[in-house]
Amino acid sequence: MTTFNPETQTVKRVMCFGAHPDDLDFGASGTVAAWTAAGVEVQYCIMTDGDAGGFDPDHRGSITDMRHEEQRAAARQVGVETVHFLGERDGFLEPTHEVMAQVVKLIRELRPDVVLAQHPERNWDRLQKSHPDHMACGEAVTRAVYPAVENPYSYPELEAAGLKAYKLPWLWLYGAPAERENHWVDVTATFEQKLEALRQHLSQHPDVGGMERFVRKQCEQKGAEAGFEAGSLAEAFHVVAVNASDTIAGF
Q1: What is the spatial distance between Cα 236 and Cα 50, in angstroms, rounded to a whole number?
Q2: Do the domain assignments include residue 25?
Q3: pLDDT tens figures, 167-226
Q4: What SS3 class is residue 5?
Q5: For residue 24, what are the CA distances in angstroms to 38, 197, 237?
Q6: Coil, strand or helix: which one is 234?
Q7: Domain holding 22: CATH number?
Q8: How many domains does the chain have?
Q9: Domain coverage including residue 162
Q10: Predicted TM-score of the model (pTM)
Q11: In this structure, is residue 133 part of a structural domain?
Q12: Is 125 part of a structural domain of the chain?
């Protein structure tokens, strides 16, 4: 089985998918900050408008615009300038062909080395990681990555528009069940950026201090699981080689 080795694998471009505004900031923003600091181009795609989020009834009429601005501000904290919004309804996301075609379009446009998305499997250890939209995001991206992104006959309108089929090297999935995690990133140096990104989502965090303590505890746990130096903070992923040197070609 081919595994990801940061010493030998080149990453120049990354496309990141999340179901809701703030999902990427919880799951992967420390890793994203490290990538952008190293000169990697990273783009975000948020699939829903987050319109079912928040706690203040007075925000109902403005919550979508508010969450878009929160996500853009959070992305800037970790060096990401481009944020795409698919505009799906919060709580109703499904891996439809309409959604998948948009995913394929974005991947073929950027032609990234890594696509990052939520895990499509349910995590029974912490059910909140497995919001139905999270799993739908992961399922839509996984289905799009193989075979549609690399099959010129999938969504032929994209090929006709000049978006040629593309063989993606790596799929990184966050929010994975613990038994699926196989790659850890030390985010100790970028953890404050991660927290600052999360602080931008004020509509979602009535207890900012409690949120920060929870995130730190989670990253401490992942650092210990990875065997990093005591006190290190980490994010964990299920990394899948989509097209490696030993991959058999075909759809």
Answers
A1: 24
A2: yes
A3: 999 999 999 999 999 999 999 999 999 999 999 998 888 899 999 999 999 999 999 999
A4: coil
A5: 19, 10, 12
A6: strand
A7: 3.40.50.10320
A8: 1
A9: 13-241
A10: 0.94
A11: yes
A12: yes
